[in-house]
Structure formats: structure tokens, C-alpha cells
UniProtKB/TrEMBL annotation, chain A:
PANTHER family: SULFATE ADENYLYLTRANSFERASE SUBUNIT 2. Belongs to the PAPS reductase family. CysD subfamily. Its EC number is 2.7.7.4. GO terms for molecular function: nucleotidyltransferase activity. It comes from Nocardioides flavus. The keyword 4Fe-4S does not apply. It is an enzyme of class 2 (transferase). This is Sulfate adenylyltransferase subunit 2. It holds the Pfam family PAPS_reduct. Gene3D superfamilies: HUPs (3.40.50.620). InterPro entries: PAPS_reduct_dom, Rossmann-like_a/b/a_fold, SO4_adenylTrfase_ssu, Sulfate_adenylyltrnsfr_sub2.
From TrEMBL, chain B:
The lineage of its organism: Bacteria, Bacillati, Actinomycetota, Actinomycetes, Propionibacteriales. This is sulfate adenylyltransferase. It comes from the Bacteria. Coiled coil: none annotated. Keywords: ATP-binding, GTP-binding, Nucleotide-binding, Nucleotidyltransferase, Transferase. Its EC number is 2.7.7.4. Residues 22-251 form the Tr-type G domain. It is an enzyme of class 2 (transferase). CDD domains: CysN_ATPS, CysN_NodQ_II, CysN_NoDQ_III.
Amino acid sequence: MTNTHVDYQLSQLDQLEAESIHIFREVAAEFEKPVLMFSGGKDSIVMLRLAEKAFFPAKLPFPLLQVDTGLDFDEVLSTRDSWVERLGARMVIATIDEAIKAGHVVDDGKTSRNRMQIGTLLGAIEENGFTAAFGGGRRDEEKARAKERVYSHRDDFGQWDPKNQRPELWSLYNGRIHAGEHMRIFPLSNWTELDIWSYIHREQIEIPSIYFAHEREVIERDGMLLSVGPEIQPKGGEKVETRMVRFRTVGDRTQTGCVESEATDTASIIEEIAVARVTERGATRGDDRFSEAAMEDRKKEGYF
Amino acid sequence: MASTPQTQSSAGEEAAAVTENADLLRFATAGSVDDGKSTLIGRLLLDSKSIFEDQLEAVESTSQSKGYDYTDLALLTDGLRSEREQGITIDVAYRYFATPNRKFIIADTPGHIQYTRNMVTGASTADLGLVLVDARQGLTEQSRRHAVLLSLLRVPHLVLAINKMDLVDWSEEVYEKIHREFTQFATKLNIPDLEVIPISALQGDNVVNRSENTPWYSGPTLMHHLEHVHVASDRDLVDTRFPVQYVIRPKSDQYHDFRGYAGQVAGGVLKKGDEVVVLPSGMTSTISKVELFDTEIAEAFPPMSVTIHLEDDVDVSRGDMIARPKNAPKPSQDIDAMICWMTNEPLKPRQKLAIKHTTRTGRAMVKDIQYRLDVNSLHRDQEAGELGLNEIGRVQLRTTVPLLCDPYSKNRTTGSFILIDEATGVTVGAGMINSGS
Ligand SMILES: Nc1nc2c(ncn2[C@@H]2O[C@H](COP(=O)(O)OP(=O)(O)O)[C@@H](O)[C@H]2O)c(=O)[nH]1
Ligand SMILES: [Mg+2]
């Protein structure tokens, strides 16, 4: 048995954990067909860990849904497989190519694969009849997210209406939806990046190795460091260099930049973040940089 | 993958320990438009080093392009595009920052009367309410209303921040006058703990750093107060309340007989050997085990999410409540509550709605609207007959299922409920229970 809490104090990280577990159980109890949107990134892995805790020793009462862009890092896929196997979880994989075939998205040659994830995701939710989809979004990530509810309502078109959100009081979540609508659920709403890393550190959670510093061939483009690979090749005067880098987010490999780092373990990453000068998104997501309101627009369209 | 030697970072270990062990303060801010709320929050984030370079740069460049003389810290928090266009805050925004001892969650709520529901939302989970006033204007009807709402929502700690002291020459007299007026008004409310702090959000005085401009002020800076205000004792550790959220039955060979009642502790302390009663059935049993994930723990207390095992095979399902035989709420279908109405179509007698209370859902009918509370004057209008958007009143409800409730003044979890429009599915009301029978 673990220690008695003489002062009955719960640390903030334990409070966050308790809140997230409460959310998972509430959704599992009230929704017909929930699903956990799994990106392979650290936030969705932390979600998995919390879900594991919420239902132990039962298996997760919902499957995982992953949008396969065909552009995922191998390290991310292998970590996913290891988690899925350990938890005995069910996995639903939606691919962009199938979504194009099914007409959920149109490949006009101009839209990035990353952007086509939106239609693919919405198509998969609709086809499978999922009524609630857990996402790893955090309110500290971005200004538009700061106002999003834990239960975030999506209409028939999967759209978010920021001006018309339901009030969300105490820990009383309202999961009512109409046929065809679904709810996005954000159990990590109140976690910060530092909380996530401290939790990974404390729980020794398995995450993809590319989060840790390693040597990689990169080129510098538009102020971002991109990993050289089949899709990313030097052009113009760009120079290929081998640098010690790590990824702070793990999206589509053509869009996700890495940062120079010496941090090879969680403690070193935490040290880095504790003194970080640039936000996660600002540093490494090519698709957020277009405009200040980019995220808000994409959320309205039904992006994660 | 390159093989690099593992470099343990002791600074990282330390930072992780701080993040793990810090405690938590949730606070809600309220102020009228232009009192400086967004600037203050920007200042707290900036001075506690919670702002990143790219965020600050974005704000600086926007300020410049708008032709401002100084960096508009308010831009750090004003998120949605429509807000930026209108230059106002229209919804609750959550902000985060941390100091070595505490993590803070700010619910930044709009001040206007037409956004009362947003303020009620932000205050519902707050340990502390921060009301901002403009020193030049002193207390306004709005600031009184903010205090009334915070007291109604039983936010246990209140800070009145008198802002823009730089614009009144740091006058002690101005501070004293507002302080006096507010204290007098507060006697009519339920405010267990009050602090009045003179600040300049724009210049930072008494926000994080003590001001040299207010030698006459000997109280804490805002940040010092936020860091040290004692919130642990606000929880109820006496009256055991465990709303059952989910029954865990693995139905696997390994855990064949496993039957755990999962939920978040709403009050009291639960431990092995405790005699308990399950409501509404009234069956009694004894706790055989308390678990957190795969580990047996000695005690569970608020707000832990745990799994409880009972010695006897009693019938327990979601919506039930585990309490103590000599200290249990009485199942009630007649509910007397204060309700904040949150939608355009008014609340009227005989109206039927869905109600969610802890993990219980049922239907409720409005039997009577006893009075509408004027949140500015505290006047009770007995003739009101209905409650419009953003109005608050005392209402009698009859529910289809018994609620296992406590007065809101005793327990904010078992004393609160939401009302849902059955046709639209929208949350239309927030209720705080006075009593049930
Ligand atoms: N002189 C002075 N101006 C302030 C102070 N705090 C805020 N302001 C200004 O008051 C205006 C409104 O501030 P803002 O933070 O947007 O107010 P909000 O509507 O309450 O969020 C802005 O022009 C601020 O720069 C202060 O302490 N002193
Ligand atoms: Mg503002």
C-alpha cells in the first residue's frame, strides 16, 4: 500500500491526472461510441496512459483512431504498435488515400497532406458512427484553444462554432448530441507542456525516440530545420547538415521541423523546456505559421 | 539512431519535481471592459516568465502595426478573432502559469452584464476570485455584481485589485475610500477572505514586484498573495461523498471477479474498513479496498479519482452515491436552488428540462420561480415570474429521480447541477442547491 497522505494534499499533477481520469470515465459512461484520436505524439500517448489508468484492469472501452498520412515517422509507428499491443487496444486506421477514394477529401494537388487529414478524420468519424472523439489538445498550446471546452461540440459538418459554445460548469459535462453530430473531448485541456513532460518523466512513459536528441541530416528552410528524406530534398542553395536535433511535435514529416538539442532523456528535455524561449507550435509546425488566426480557422473546419 | 551517452540533467530533475509537487490554485478574474484585466493577466504571465519569445514578438509587432506607444499585453490573452476585432473578451479563456510553489489556472471571464453566464462558468471551479476596478472610477455597479456572483458561487477567497493607481497619483486616499466602500458592501455577502491590493497592471506595480510608489501599503503584492493564500482547507474532508461514475468489470479470465466502483471523491476520506451506505438503495457494506490504478492506497480524498471495492455483493451502478450510514445526504426530489439562466428563451414555471447532478441524470420540472435576484442591488423581485438570459433567481424544482445532494454552501460538487434543454441539448442553466426534501 502506498503512503498515507497526512495532510490530504494532492499535488497539481495528481489533480490533473484525477481530472483527466474523471473525464475519460464520464465519456465512457455517457457516449454510445467513443474513440481516441491517436496521433502517435506525446500528448496522445499521455492520453492513452490516463485511459489505461481510468479503466484498469479492464481494457479500454473504446478503440483508437489514427489518420495515416503515409508521412508518419517510422519511430512513431513502432511506438504506437508497442502501446497497442501492451494494452490490447483496438485500432482503426483511416488513410488519406481511402478518404480521397471515398470522396471525403479532394486532392487538388495544392492542399497539403496535413490539411487533408481534416476530411479524412471527419470521414472516419462519420463512417464509423463515432459519437465522441478524444483529442490531445491543450489550452496552453494556442490562443484559440484557450477558450475551447473540455467537451467541444461539433455539428453535422464536424465544425466548431467558437461563438456558440455551451457553458461548461464545475465538473458537470454535457454530452448531449443529435444524430450526425459528435463531441470532441479534450482530457488534457488543463495540462501545460511542462506538465506533460513531468508526467512522462514520472511515469516513465514510452514515447517515440525522435523526441530525444539524435543526429540527423537536416536542411534549414524558412527558419525551420527539416529532416532530409524522400519528400524533403535540398533545393536552391540549401545545404544538408548533420546536426544533433530532436522533435518537439511529431506530425507529418514534411511539415514538422526539429530543433537543435542535446537532450537525450526526459530530465534534459524538461530542463530545456523550463528555459524554453519559443512555444512548441511556433517552433516547429509549418502549417500554423500562415496567420495568427490559422488555428482558429482550422478548428472551425474540424481539425483536431 | 545515434548513440549518445545518457546525460542526466539535475536541473531537469529539479524542474520535474517542482512541477510534480506544486499545488494548484484556480482563480477567476472579473472586471468591466477597460479596467485592465487582460493587461493584468498579460503582466502576470510576463513577469512570471510564462510568455515565450514568439508570443511576445507577435504581440509587439501587432502593437506596433496598430500604432501603440507601448506593447499591449492584453493581446496575449485576447484570443478569438471576433474578440480581437471588437477589442473585447467574449468568452471564458483559460490561462496557465506557474511559480516554484504553485501552478495557476486562470479563468479569464468577460465583465459585461450580458456575459454573466460566462463569469458564472469561470467562477464555478475557482478557489479565488479577482475583481478589478479602475482607481479613477472606484466601485461601479459592475464590480458589485462581480462580487455578488463570486459570493453566490461560493468562491472562498476574494481579491479586489485597484488598478491604474498610476493615474490617480498613487493616492492612499483613493485606495482607502474604495477599500472602505467595498468592505461595507461585502458585509451583505458571503466572503470569508478578502484582500484589497493597489496595483498598476500596465507598469507592474504590486503585481509581482512591490511598488515604491505605494509606501503606505503594507499588504502583499498580488503574486505573493496568489502564491500563499491557503486553499487546502477549503475542501470538505469530513462528509464522505463518492458519486459512482463507472463500474469496472473486466470480464477477463485474470480478473474474473473484479468489480470496482470508479469515481472522483467529492467529500470526506474513504478507507478500507469504513462502513458505508449506497444511495439511493440504502444498502450498507464495508470498503474492502481503495485503489488508484493498479495500486492499493490507504485513503482516498477529494479530488482523487479512484476505484472502491466493497465487501458485499450489493447492487451499485452509475448515479449511485457511496456515503456513511450516519452521514449521508437524503435522496430528494423537491429541490430549492439558485439558478443562473443561460439562454435567450426565458425559464418559466412548469417548464421541463433535463438535469445533471453529479453522475445522475434525470428530468426536472419548474414548480415555482420564487424571486429574481437583482445582482446589482441584491433586491429580490417576487413578482418576476420568469428568468431571462443571465438572470439569477430562486427556483423550486421537482425531479423525476431523487438527487443525492447537499447544500451548495456545504459542498460545491454535490450541491451543484446543470439544466439541459432536451430539444437542443444545450446547457441552459446552472443551479446551486439551497436544500432538498
Ligand atoms: N495607465 C494605466 N493604464 C492601464 C493599466 N492597466 C490597463 N491599462 C490600459 O487600459 C486599457 C484597457 O486595458 P485592458 O487590459 O484591455 O482591459 P480589459 O478590457 O479589462 O481587458 C488599455 O489601454 C491598457 O493599456 C494601468 O495600470 N495603468
Ligand atoms: Mg480584456
